[in-house]
Write a structure and sequence with these properties.
Layout (H helix, E strand, L loop, with lengths): L12 E4 L9 H8 L5 H9 L3 E3 L2 E2 L12 E4 L14 E5 L3 E6 L16 H6 L3 H13 L12 E2 L8 E7 L2 H12 L4 E9 L5 E8 L8 E2 L13 E14 L5 E9 L6 H8 L30 E9 L6 E5 L4 H12 L8
Parallel strand pairs: 8-14
Antiparallel strand pairs: 1-4, 2-3, 2-4, 5-6, 6-8, 7-8, 9-13, 9-14, 10-11, 10-12, 12-13, 14-15
C-alpha cells in the first residue's frame, strides 16, 4: 500500500498508486489512504474540489486508477470547472475562434481521457469541448444533425494558466496555424507574478523531458549528465513591470515574458531555475543553485497569464493580435501584496 509523503508547508498530501491498487476507484483508494476519514468525508473532498490525479482536478469518485498515477489532496479547493458563460470570445469567424481561457480549465482532453463516458467528461469539461456549444449559441444554428462541429487545438495553456488561445475550426486552418506555432512566428506575451526582484534579461537553455529527477528542465542544470544537444532550444525574454519589497522582507515582481520559442512549461521552468518561481508554483521550484524554498506568497493559483497572442490569419494572411489583462483574482492578489509593501520602497 502506498503511503503519503510528509505534508508540505501548503498542507498537501501526495499518494502514488501502487501496482496492487490499479483499477481501484478513486474513492476506494482515498478511503484506504485515509482510514480515519468517513465515506462522507471522502466524497466531500471530491465534490469540494480538493483532489487531483496527475495534476488534474478529479471530482469523479468512480474513476479507475492506474498504477503509478499521482493523487494529491489539496489544502485549498481548486476553481470550479468552467461553464460556457465563463469563456470570453474575442474573435470568431468560419476558420478560427480566439478565446480567453479561465484558470482551472484544461485546454483539451488528455489522450487517456478521450474514451471517457459523456457523463464523466461533463464533470470536468475541457475548453475544446465547451467551444462547439458556445459557437453554436453565438451563430444561432446547429450543423449537420444538430451536433456541434469540433474545434481543433493548435497550442495549449497549462490548466492553471489563464489567457488567450486560438482554436482552428477547419483542417486547413489547423495546418496553417500549427505551422506558425511550430516555426515560432506567432507573438506570445505572458504576465507573471514571481518571487524576488527580476532583472530584464533573455533566458536561453535546452529543455529536456527529464532533467534527472523525472521532471522537465534545462539540460544545462543537470550537472553535465545530459548533453544540451539532447534538448530543444528555449528562449524567453523577461522584462520587469513593477517590483515590491514587503514589510516581511520578501520581494516580488510583476513581469512580462515574451516567448521566442514555445516549449512545454518553458516560462515556469526558466523562472524557477533563475531563482524566481512563479507565485503559486507547485511543480517547478528548484533554482539553479541552492534549495527550493516554500511559497509564502498566498497566491490563489499559478500567477501566470497569457496576455497577448498574435498570428497570421490562416486564410486572409492578415496579422491579428489580441490582448487580455490580468484576471480579477491575480489583480486582487497583486493588490494585496502592494498593501504589504514598504512605503516608498517600491522599485
Amino acid at each position: 500500500m502506498s503511503k503519503p509523503r510528509p505534508k508540505t508547508n501548503s498542507g498537501e498530501q501526495t499518494f502514488h498508486v501502487a501496482q496492487g491498487q490499479a483499477n481501484q476507484t478513486l474513492s476506494a483508494a482515498l478511503r484506504a489512504w485515509l482510514p480515519n476519514q468517513s465515506w462522507s468525508k471522502i466524497r466531500q473532498l471530491l465534490t469540494l474540489r480538493h483532489v487531483t490525479v496527475n495534476g488534474n482536478l478529479s471530482t469523479d469518485a468512480g474513476r479507475r486508477l492506474k498504477a503509478a498515477e499521482v493523487v494529491k489532496i489539496l489544502s485549498r479547493p481548486l476553481a470550479a470547472p468552467a461553464k460556457p458563460d465563463d469563456v470570453v470570445v474575442q474573435y470568431l469567424d468560419e476558420h478560427v475562434i480566439v478565446v480567453e481561457k479561465p484558470a482551472g480549465t484544461t485546454s483539451n482532453r488528455h489522450r487517456e481521457e478521450v474514451d471517457w463516458s459523456a457523463r464523466r467528461k461533463q464533470l470536468q469539461p475541457t475548453l475544446d469541448e465547451l467551444l462547439p456549444h458556445i459557437i453554436t449559441k453565438m451563430e444561432g444554428r446547429r450543423s449537420g444533425r444538430g451536433v456541434p462541429l469540433p474545434v481543433r487545438a493548435v497550442h495549449r495553456l497549462d490548466r492553471d494558466t489563464s489567457g488567450i488561445m486560438v482554436f482552428a475550426r477547419t483542417h486547413p486552418a489547423e495546418r496553417h496555424l500549427a505551422e506558425q506555432f511550430r516555426h515560432h512566428t506567432t507573438h506570445r506575451r505572458y504576465l507573471a507574478i514571481v518571487e524576488g526582484h527580476v532583472q530584464a534579461q533573455t533566458i536561453t537553455s535546452h529543455l529536456v523531458r527529464d532533467r534527472g529527477d523525472g521532471r522537465r528542465g534545462s539540460a544545462e542544470q543537470s550537472g553535465g549528465k545530459i548533453a544540451p544537444q539532447s534538448g530543444k532550444i528555449a528562449v524567453t525574454h523577461v522584462k520587469p513591470i513593477e517590483r515590491l519589497r514587503l514589510l516581511s522582507g520578501r520581494e516580488y515582481s510583476l513581469i512580462q515574458c515574451r516567448l521566442e520559442t514555445g516549449r512545454t512549461h518553458q516560462i515556469r521552468i526558466h523562472l524557477s531555475e533563475l531563482g524566481h518561481p512563479v507565485c503559486g508554483e507547485k511543480v517547478y521550484r528548484q533554482p539553479r543553485f541552492g534549495k527550493a524554498k516554500p511559497d509564502k506568497s498566498g497566491a490563489p493559483r499559478l500567477a501566470l497569464h497569457a496576455a497577448e497572442l498574435g498570428f497570421a490569419h490562416p486564410v486572409t494572411g492578415k496579422t491579428l493580435r489580441f490582448q487580455a489583462g490580468l484576471p480579477a483574482e491575480l489583480t486582487e492578489f497583486w493588490k494585496r501584496l502592494k498593501e504589504q509593501a514598504v512605503a516608498g520602497k517600491d522599485e
